[in-house]
Design brief:
The complex is a heterodimer of chains A (236) and B (254).
Chain A (H helix, E strand, L loop, with lengths): L4 H12 L2 H27 L5 H13 L3 H23 L10 H26 L3 H9 L4 H31 L11 H12 L2 H30 L9
Helix pairs in contact in A: 1-8, 1-9, 2-3, 2-5, 2-7, 3-5, 4-5, 5-7, 6-7, 7-9, 8-9
Chain B lengths: L1 E10 L2 E11 L4 E5 L6 H8 L7 E6 L2 E4 L5 H10 E4 L11 H11 L5 H14 L15 H14 L4 E5 L7 H16 L4 E4 L3 H7 L2 E6 L2 E6 L1 H6 L4 H10 L7 H4 L1
Parallel strand pairs in B: 3-8, 3-9, 6-7, 7-8
Antiparallel strand pairs in B: 1-2, 1-4, 4-5, 9-10
Helix pairs in contact in B: 3-4, 3-5, 4-5, 5-6
The chains are: A mainly alpha (236), B alpha/beta (254).
Chain lengths: 236, 254
């Protein structure tokens, strides 16, 4: 067996053109998940009536089923739902006019909310009770205390977890290929098939994933240093 | 004037406070003594509703809160009339000393930032920490952290400051600096309720001493009443037990 090193380089740059799509499928759901995840985590922690059971079920179900399944279910169910709604109300709107990417992003976002909410919940729980008591004692309301005191500290605590989740989502974004999204691995498949050089194409793809992961780790280390500067201690 | 009427608090089936009545006049320095588990800290935390009393009434100035049906606004109002100094300081870990003192002013009292900053600097100077403004709590000693805690409470200009065992977590050699600060502000007429085990401090600084046991006030009076001439047997036992060993007569040790 011989490896065509030169082709790895060629493939690398060709596959790299799919990186924006992969990053979109990774980052957009995570941003969405962070926002809604905070709300979900707070609902669960403060046991807000009725909604908290709903949130509990949501998190349990979505974390209890594989992401590729969410992608497939949304991909098959959403168009049917939209079309039947459209027919019922007599709209001229057809699901076929919606880009598939939107279904993919929906599926990943729903999943991201579930995972994020658990990470954020753990971060909030890691903040000592004394911190919120002190906030109350100086006269803050609960929203003020949560926003100004609890969440900033929780964020510092969950940074390593967020990086982990990013890496996880980066790698699971490959499932988008099952619904014909030409992301990194999809592109690698095409490059491989066209040139009949599978190993080289996949090595190139692996290098891209690895590179992205390393960048994510570096960014996290940098953020961690800045965000948690306060806890480094030592008499300065 | 601060008035507590018939305060009850239980945790599940454990009754911690069984009907506490206490009146504190403006400028009073009240010290609460008692064995551990007597409900001192819980009582303190009931005043600003960090613990919610099951029954009774809390009055601070013109505001009276019925503990059975406190509204969210009542609780916030109570907390804005009081400040608390915690046993474990509880400084906001992600904020500098100065930001710790400013935080309540800016967020809760809506004081303009510049004014809050000036007042906070003044308070930090008062507790002798002007040079530590930009330090994070993790960069300060226990005594320094607690002094920031006191500055944070003072800056709010509350009607009442609650001290929850402010020196219990400190190294013995750091206790003095914190007590000295509390003593200074007590002499300036700040109304305070202090839970402490520092008998010398209680004797010297307070004008009213409350002895609690089993969730009730066993005895209260001037420091002289309590320390020199306690009426209740339980008070006498307690005071005897916490008197330092070295002051025991030698015969007692043989």
């Amino acid at each position: 067996m011989t490896i065509d090193i030169a082709f790895i380089v060629t493939a690398f740059f060709e596959i790299l053109t799919a990186l924006p799509l992969t990053l979109t499928i990774t980052v957009v759901p995570l941003i969405f998940g962070l926002g809604i995840g905070v709300v979900t985590a707070l609902i669960r922690l403060y046991k807000v009536r009725v909604v908290h059971q709903l949130a509990e079920f949501y998190v349990s179900f979505l974390r209890g089923t594989p992401i590729v399944l969410h992608v497939l279910i949304i991909y098959f169910a959403m168009p049917k739902l939209i079309d039947s709604l459209s027919a019922y109300f007599g709209w001229s709107f057809k699901s076929a006019s919606i880009p598939i990417l939107l279904f993919v992003l929906t599926a990943y976002s729903l999943t991201a909310v579930a995972y994020m909410s658990e990470i954020i919940r753990s971060g909030i729980l890691s903040v000592p009770a004394g911190q919120i008591e002190a906030a109350y004692a100086v006269g803050m309301s609960t929203p003020q205390a949560v926003w100004r005191i609890v969440l900033p500290q929780a964020f510092g605590a969950i940074l390593p977890n967020l990086c982990n989740l990013f890496i996880g989502f980066l790698h699971t974004s490959t499932f988008a290929f099952t619904v014909s999204q030409m992301e990194l691995l999809g592109k690698a498949n095409v490059v491989a098939s066209v040139n009949l050089k599978f190993l080289e194409a996949f090595i190139a793809a692996a290098l891209i994933y690895w590179g992205m992961t390393i960048i994510a780790e570096r960014i996290t280390a940098f953020l961690e240093k800045r965000v948690t500067a306060y806890s480094r201690g030592g008499m300065a | 004037m601060i008035h507590l009427k018939n305060i009850h608090k239980s945790f599940g089936r454990l009754n911690v406070l069984n009907g506490i009545n206490l009146t504190v006049e403006r400028g009073d320095v009240v010290v609460i003594l008692g064995p551990s588990g007597s409900g001192k800290t819980t009582l303190l935390r009931c005043i600003n509703f960090l613990e919610r009393p099951n029954d009774g009434e809390v009055t601070i100035g013109a505001l009276t809160v019925d503990c059975r049906h406190p509204s969210r606004k009542d609780i916030l109002e109570l907390r804005r009339k009081t400040a608390m100094v915690f046993q474990h300081y509880n400084l906001f870990k992600h904020k500098t000393a100065l930001e710790n003192v400013m935080e309540g002013l800016i967020v809760a009292q809506k004081v303009p930032k510049k004014e809050a900053r000036e007042r906070s600097l003044e308070m930090l100077e008062k507790v002798g920490l002007s040079d530590k403004c930009d330090h994070y709590p993790s960069q300060l000693s226990g005594g320094q952290q607690q002094r920031v805690g006191i500055a944070r409470a003072l800056a709010l200009n509350p009607e009442l400051i609650l001290f929850d065992e402010p020196t219990s977590a400190l190294d013995p050699e750091l206790v003095g600096e914190v007590l000295a600060v509390i003593k200074t502000i007590a002499s300036e007429g700040v109304t305070m309720i202090v839970v402490t085990h520092e008998m010398g401090f209680a004797r010297e600084v307070s004008n009213h001493v409350v002895f609690m046991d089993g969730g009730v006030i066993v005895e209260q009076g001037t420091p002289a009443d309590i320390f020199v001439d306690p009426k209740e047997e339980r008070t006498r036992q307690f005071l005897k037990r916490i008197t330092p060993e070295w002051s025991y007569p030698m015969e007692a040790l043989r």
